[in-house]
Amino acid sequence: MAVIKTSETAHRELLDMLAWIAQDNPRKALEFIDALQDEMRKVLETLPQSGRALEDGARYIVVSGRVVVYEYRADSDEVIVLHYHAPGRNWR
User: Which pairs from 64-69 meet CB under 8 Å and 24+ separation?
Assistant: First the structure.
C-alpha cells in the first residue's frame, strides 16, 4: 500500500480551498476536505499508477470535482501530492 505525502504547495492549495469554502459554511468546508482526502487516499494508496500520465512524469486523478496532480515513486512506494486544482481553472 503506497504512502501518501503532500508537498508544501499542495498543502497551501488545500488550505486555500478550505478557507474559500468556509466563507459560506465552515462545517461543510471541513466535511468537503475530509471527503476529498478520504476518496483520494482510497484510490492512490491501492492504485497509485491509475491516474492519467502527464508529459513531465506526474499523473492526475479527478476527485470530488478537483484535479489532484501527483507523482508516484515506485522505488519507495510513495505518492507525493503536488497540486490540488479547482474546477474551471486552466491547470495545465
Answer: 64/32, 64/35, 64/36, 64/39, 66/17, 66/36, 67/91, 68/40
